[in-house]
């Protein structure tokens, strides 16, 4: 009897072990196919929070030093709302507690709430720049759903077919593309089970998992003004932003930017052909000499400036300037001139380190030689103003772009605006905006400018572009 019981116990244990191993095998096989199936699926958005685990410094700087994450957000506290509700104002026909969402946070704020599943603006907005209320879409708020007018640029992962999005504000994936495969690859590198079968080089993230692009279009997807029709719908709908843009690509060919020729009322463009309103930095920069720096290097270089070598790309090519030392392009392989991210560190790291300076410290790295050459040719210093009194941007990037009821945004066309342009077309000029010479008359500014720059020939009244 004892032998039979012992034999039975052994058989039961063996059956248990076999069942256990079968269950483990099933789980392992299921996990294997689950992980590998995810590799084959189209990448999807996972939110910026997922990026924080591995990129904490960039994430924290983006979160704390930039405006991108709070460009559109649900109201979490009264501090999110900058509008002044302390006095009765006939323009404001809503209460602070009626506000569910806030759009904007630097120059002006638009307030919104959800109605029947759609975000709609309230009928007054607060101008932060001038500290005042103005009417907003009073009679047309029902025709201004944020899903077609705003959300493509103020959210991350917006889907024009469903109007859904992954994240409020401009998150990591707005510039780097959907991050699911990147996150999965990172996790697999840390998984002991994966490393048993795969070398780490086989599963590490690559350029197909996440996008790192220096192209202007990455910023231009939102810093531009235009329209695109969603052709995938039965009833076509027009959106005020590019649809289904993939970072690294050019803007969609059927995205139609607003042009000066279309701007009959002069709301968006000055007659000089430079932007008058916000969301147009991409248009100005695209036709600037900075954007065409590589082209000019190859077509206009002279022996007077020395031998043309790959080192010249440091000031003429974004892909050279920002590439790793081992991956630097050459004169033959470089593809682009300067781009937005050469001057704007997108994660806010320059703000975090206190190195945000738009002056000789930044511009002089590339322009010191040309400034010296020009001064030698004319016999006059580059500017009559002392460096301590003005920056390069004060003259070359004047405050001529309107937002919040004033002109608080710098131009990105890199064109001097002479005082005579103020007289002829009303544009703020390079000498008197931003606090420079604002105590002097326009007549004084015109005379002083003509005295120091007698050969200035930039056209004031451009043909529409």
Description:
The chain has 19 helices and 13 strands. The strands form four sheets. Strands 1, 2, 3, 4, 5 and 6 form a six-stranded antiparallel β-sheet that branches. Strands 10-9-11 form a three-stranded antiparallel β-sheet. A two-stranded antiparallel sheet has the order 7-8. The protein is globular. It is an alpha+beta fold and 465 residues long. A hairpin with a 2-residue loop joins strand 3 (108-115) and strand 4. Helix 18 crosses helix 19. Among the domains are: 56-152, no CATH class; 286-378, no CATH class; 392-452, no CATH class. The model is unreliable at 32-38 (pLDDT under 50). Helix content is 35%, strand content 11%. It has helices at residues 2-40, 48-52, 56-65, 146-149, 151-154, 172-176, 180-190, 192-197, 200-203, 216-220, 281-286, 293-300, 318-321, 340-343, 349-353, 360-378, 392-396, 419-425, 442-452, and strands at residues 72-74, 101-103, 108-115, 118-121, 124-127, 132-135, 155-156, 167-168, 226-230, 237-239, 256-257, 399-403, 406-410.
């Amino acid at each position: 009897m004892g032998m039979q019981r012992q034999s039975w116990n052994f058989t039961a244990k063996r059956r248990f072990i076999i069942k256990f191993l079968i269950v483990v095998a099933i789980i392992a096989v299921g996990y294997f196919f689950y992980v590998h199936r995810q590799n084959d699926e189209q990448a999807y958005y996972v939110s910026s929070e997922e990026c924080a685990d591995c990129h904490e410094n960039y994430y924290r700087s983006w979160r704390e030093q930039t405006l991108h994450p709070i460009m559109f957000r649900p109201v979490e506290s009264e501090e999110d709302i900058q509008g002044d509700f302390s006095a009765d104002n006939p323009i404001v026909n809503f209460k602070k507690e009626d506000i569910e969402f806030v759009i904007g946070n630097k120059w002006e704020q638009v307030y919104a709430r959800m109605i029947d599943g759609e975000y709609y603006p309230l009928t007054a907005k607060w101008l932060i720049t001038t500290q005042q209320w103005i009417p907003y879409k009073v009679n047309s708020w029902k025709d201004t759903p944020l899903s077609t007018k705003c959300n493509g640029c103020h959210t991350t992962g917006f889907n024009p077919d469903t109007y859904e999005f992954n994240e409020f504000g401009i998150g990591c994936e707005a510039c780097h593309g959907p991050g699911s495969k990147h996150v999965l690859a990172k996790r697999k590198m840390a998984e002991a089970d994966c490393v048993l079968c795969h070398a780490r080089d086989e599963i590490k993230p690559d350029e197909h998992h996440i996008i790192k692009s220096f192209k202007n279009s990455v910023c231009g997807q939102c810093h531009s003004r235009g329209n695109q029709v969603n052709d995938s719908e039965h009833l076509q709908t027009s959106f005020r932003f590019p649809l289904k843009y993939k970072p690294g690509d050019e803007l969609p060919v059927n995205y139609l930017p607003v042009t000066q020729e279309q701007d009959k009322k002069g709301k968006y463009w000055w007659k000089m052909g430079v932007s008058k309103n916000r969301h147009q930095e991409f248009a100005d920069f695209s036709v600037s000499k900075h954007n065409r720096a590589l082209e000019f290097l190859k077509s206009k270089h002279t022996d007077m400036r020395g031998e043309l070598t790959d080192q010249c790309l440091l000031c003429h090519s974004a892909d050279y300037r920002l590439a790793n030392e081992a991956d630097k392009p050459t004169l033959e392989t470089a593809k682009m001139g300067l781009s937005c991210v050469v001057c704007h560190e997108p994660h806010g790291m320059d703000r975090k380190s206190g190195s945000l300076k738009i002056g000789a410290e930044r511009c002089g790295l590339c322009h010191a030689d040309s400034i010296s050459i020009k001064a030698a040719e004319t016999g006059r210093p580059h500017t009559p103003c002392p460096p301590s009194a003005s920056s390069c941007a004060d003259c070359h990037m004047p405050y001529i772009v309107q937002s919040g009821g004033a002109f608080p945004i710098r131009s990105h066309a890199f064109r001097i605006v002479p005082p005579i342009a103020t007289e002829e077309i009303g544009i703020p000029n390079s000498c008197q905006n931003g606090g420079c010479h604002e105590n002097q008359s326009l007549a004084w500014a015109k005379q002083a400018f003509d005295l120091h720059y007698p050969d200035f020939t930039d056209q004031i009244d451009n043909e529409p572009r």
